[in-house]
Input
Amino acid sequence: MLQLPAAQCLADWFPNPAAGNKAPGHQEGVLAAVPRVEALRHLDVLRDADLLPVVVDVGCVALANLFLTLHPEACESDDVCLVNLSGQMADIALIGNGQKLFPRIVLSLNQTWEEALDYLKQNLMDVIEYGRQRLDFCGSPRVIFTGDVPFHDRLDSEFGAGLGSETCFWNPFSRCLRPRGRRAAQMVEPGAARMAASPGIALRRS
Amino acid sequence: MVPFDLNLIREEVPPPARRRMTLGLMLAYLVFSSGVLVVVVYGSTRKLVAAHKDRVDIARLDMNFREECPGTGDILSAAKQLGERATRRVETLNLLEDTLSRRMDLPRLMAGIVGALPRTATLHRVVLDKENGMVRFEVAVPADAASPLTIDVRQFVAAWGRDSYLAMELGKIRPVASHHRQIQGEEVLVMEFAGTLRRQEA
Output
């Protein structure tokens, strides 16, 4: 929760069209806001490097855009819950019909995700339940993990039963690149998925 | 087009159309500047080549000059000396021309005097007296033809007064004296006239 005046925030939003037909004048969407000072500090670093930053996106939104670009058919029939794990943060993007998005960020400051599996599982269940009850998502979306997932080989055993959903690991680079050169081979290793949000931002042009 | 369009610095950076326009303008400026630079460099190079060619030509001419005119130094100092000499001569010529323009044209003066005389009269003598600023001349008429009916001195004087050159050079011409004289065995009437010089020669 940001407790700052609006002038000290950078904010943007987009509507969720599929969720806007509940009542006349009622519209739902996603609003993202960050402290202006913090964002501008990062932008100044880029400008000092003679770069021109044109887009500041949120990780889970960029991830959802990348997933929908690479796998548009995956969301046609089922809802999808994308989970991007990094060191202490989990970006969760609940995507419905490829049209509406419910993002959430979960932090684990004292434990690794390997140690906080139950905490992660509980948050995922909360997100899915909230989406089902409040936002008309289905109750059993496919849960797709990406990023730094040390337990990617035992997802079903850890999450399948608890969530009641199909789980899998997704490395966006495995489909984009053929492992010909040494660098390309490194990219398709499971660790390469840590950069999953980056190509999602790279999709943006404005 | 991405499905979820979120940009926290949407208001902070120029929109793509404006960035494209700015980039296009910068590109056009770059092309224009490059063109100008190429033209300037081309012009400068041509001038440098021409200057180098001039230096080579001057060196060759100087060498030829030294071979053909030994002892006169290099071509530039010789040209300078010649220029100074020409300047002095031009000044001399100007002085000469000025002097000549101020000198009396005696043939024209005599032609003016003779032009007014009747056929029987001859110009006998002309004296240019610079010290007194006078011109004296004598008109001889055969004694048998020198009657007042045939010789009218006032007509001479009036005709000389109408002559523009005589009027410019001399004041009023007046008869001074007349007398009979034997010239080559013939008796003639010699009439002496005088006119004051209007200007003194240098």
Q: What stands out?
A: The mean pLDDT of chain A is 84. The interface with chain B takes residues 10-14, 30, 32-34, 39, 43, 52-58, 61, 64-65, 68-69, 98-99, 101, 203-206 of chain A (CB under 8 Å). The radius of gyration of chain A is 18 Å. The first strand of chain A starts at residue 9 and ends at 15.
